[in-house]
């Protein structure tokens, strides 16, 4: 039986820009289940980031419901959403979003500082996850002294360090050269295959699409195609 991690039920998202209303998502139903590795494709501006942000509770829908682990979280308070993101979801962004004045180690450590975990355990977890992404010899480097691929590995380590149930990656290879993009996707694929991490990733990149186990396409705010890759 498949276990639901995150689910959208009839989700619509509208943005207002001056007098104009933009409908970024239009009555979307979708369920991410445990162990999935889904790629979200679709043209620029079709609603991929909006879809991921709502799935990851970074953003709220205009109407419709969001469930996480089967519980309706549409109307829970900000503190509960913060705890959900901290404990259950890891985010990876196209532009890495690292804190420039913190080292690789400190960037990965950051989410754990909001949790009640001993210093010893924090050190063990940060070191283990940085080793997993192959950065054991770059822990003390500031982001400015890392390559694009290394920065994205730090971001992946930061997303993983809290042992999340779901990793959401928004165009994780878009700012990387081909070779680096391939090594980042190999890492993400391995996380899904070996550690059974549930992954949903937005991308136009054919290599990313090829690696995923399933694909959905969003166009004009609707999911119009769902197929196994
Ligand atoms: N904060 C916002 N305010 C107003 N309009 C927005 C906002 N965020 C997104 N939009 C609009 O919503 C639509 C969907 O945008 P979204 O970023 O979700 O698309 P996308 O598929 O991720 O695009 P891309 O592939 O270019 O990143 C677009 O028309 C965009 O201009």
UniProtKB/TrEMBL annotation:
<dbReference type="GO" id="GO:0005524">
    <property type="term" value="F:ATP binding"/>
</dbReference>
<dbReference type="GO" id="GO:0022857">
    <property type="term" value="F:transmembrane transporter activity"/>
</dbReference>
<keyword id="KW-0813">Transport</keyword>
<dbReference type="InterPro" id="IPR015854">
    <property type="entry name" value="ABC_transpr_LolD-like"/>
</dbReference>
<keyword id="KW-0067">ATP-binding</keyword>
<dbReference type="GO" id="GO:0005886">
    <property type="term" value="C:plasma membrane"/>
</dbReference>
<dbReference type="Pfam" id="PF00005">
    <property type="entry name" value="ABC_tran"/>
</dbReference>
<dbReference type="GO" id="GO:0098796">
    <property type="term" value="C:membrane protein complex"/>
</dbReference>
<dbReference type="InterPro" id="IPR017911">
    <property type="entry name" value="MacB-like_ATP-bd"/>
</dbReference>
<dbReference type="InterPro" id="IPR003439">
    <property type="entry name" value="ABC_transporter-like_ATP-bd"/>
</dbReference>
<protein>
    <submittedName>
        <fullName>ABC transporter</fullName>
    </submittedName>
</protein>
<feature type="domain" description="ABC transporter">
    <location>
        <begin position="6"/>
        <end position="228"/>
    </location>
</feature>
<dbReference type="InterPro" id="IPR027417">
    <property type="entry name" value="P-loop_NTPase"/>
</dbReference>
<keyword id="KW-0547">Nucleotide-binding</keyword>
<comment type="similarity">
    <text>Belongs to the ABC transporter superfamily. Macrolide exporter (TC 3.A.1.122) family.</text>
</comment>
<dbReference type="InterPro" id="IPR017871">
    <property type="entry name" value="ABC_transporter-like_CS"/>
</dbReference>
<dbReference type="InterPro" id="IPR003593">
    <property type="entry name" value="AAA+_ATPase"/>
</dbReference>
<dbReference type="GO" id="GO:0016887">
    <property type="term" value="F:ATP hydrolysis activity"/>
</dbReference>
